Amino acid sequence: MAMLNFGGTDEKVVLREEFPLTKALETLKDETIAVIGYGVQGPGQSMNLRDNGFNVIVGQRQGGKSWDKAVEDGWIPGKTLFSIEEAAEKGTIIQYLLSDAAQIEVWPTIKPFLTPGKALYFSHGFGITYNDRTGIQAPEGVDVILVAPKGSGTSLRRMFLQGRGLNSSYAIAQDATGRAYERVIALGIGVGSGYLFETDFKREVYSDLTGERGTLMGAIQGIFEAQYQVLRANGHTPSEAFNETVEELTQSLMPLVAENGMDWMYANCSTTAQRGALDWKDKFRDATKPVFEDLYRSVATGNEAQRSIDSNSQTDYRVKLEAELRELRESEMWQAGRTVRSLRPENN
Ligand SMILES: NC(=O)c1ccc[n+]([C@@H]2O[C@H](COP(=O)([O-])OP(=O)(O)OC[C@H]3O[C@@H](n4cnc5c(N)ncnc54)[C@H](O)[C@@H]3O)[C@@H](O)[C@H]2O)c1
Ligand SMILES: CC(C)(O)[C@@H](O)C(=O)O
Ligand SMILES: [Mg+2]
Ligand SMILES: [Mg+2]
């Protein structure tokens, strides 16, 4: 574990050099890792673990799209691909990667397989933090650990294949065996993390729910919509509005921000842009900060969790969700985006 300084604050982090893959493999050499769920995180984590040489199996409901995808990805029914029950029985580490709502529903099925000495692993603090609402309460004899990749399972896999790593947080809610720390770090390295930073289940879920509702997706989509609509209302074409709102951001500026930071971006655009962006950033901050405060409150009171549990457990949830997603997909902005993407030279 290293102490590193992040902008003036010291933090405990684990770097890949300090806990190399060889050490992770040695730590887990007698374990069977059962990845339960093959949606988005399941494929990324299980395939990275498999390619890294760990003993890993998958547990998934039979007969659906996810099962077929697992077979396509090389998991063999009866050998490395099982029903949820069979995988939970065989696993000494159970990576609970069903959707958060499904974790509640399937919990009574999983719980009997959590015998002393096993580890229960999450990639989100949701089930444990809001256990008054989820009913997920691990038995005393098991380790309860978390590795939460800070990004999509799709990126986790892509970055692994590119020899890169996606940063993850890690946490221990229960150390029953005295091995929870080495287990969680070995798994964090095994699934393809960049560096690992320490958190607890509550801070993980509070920050994660805030981030995805905020600047990672909700806020950014809201700001895109607002700017696009104003440009369109003032006579700008879809092409101009989309390029000035989204395409330039994702294709030109954000890759530069990712490499060098927004401070560098500010220093390397025109003096005209600098003047305006310095003047307007505070107005945007002041306009949106109360919304972020409201959002954080809604997360901390459990409202966001309850809303997600209530809507995700409705029988017509998928149909309603698809209607909302269709509206987004069919909006002028994202239809214009589809055309703009198709015109990228590399897509021709
Ligand atoms: N999606 C991501 O990239 C991402 C990123 C970080 C953390 N997480 C966390 O990882 C966990 C898994 O998320 P995900 O997005 O991969 O899940 P998901 O929504 O893709 O679902 C995973 C699996 O759950 C199965 N499932 C759904 N309902 C079920 C039911 N009733 N019974 C049995 N199986 C059922 C599906 O078949 C699917 O294979 C969650 O805790 C999530 O918060 C996800
Ligand atoms: C990929 C995200 C948004 O970071 C994750 O938190 C999720 O819930 O899918
Ligand atoms: Mg999330
Ligand atoms: Mg997240």
From TrEMBL:
Domain KARI N-terminal Rossmann: 11-199
Transmembrane segments annotated in the record for this chain: none
Alphabetical keyword list: Amino-acid biosynthesis, Branched-chain amino acid biosynthesis, Magnesium, Metal-binding, Oxidoreductase
Cofactor: Mg(2+)
EC number(s) recorded for this UniProt protein: 1.1.1.86
Alphabetized GO MF terms: ketol-acid reductoisomerase activity; metal ion binding
Residue ranges occupied by any KARI C-terminal knotted domain in the UniProt entry: 200-347
Oxidoreductase is among the record's keywords: yes
Family in the record: Belongs to the ketol-acid reductoisomerase family.
Annotated protein name in UniProt: Ketol-acid reductoisomerase
The gene coding this protein: ilvC
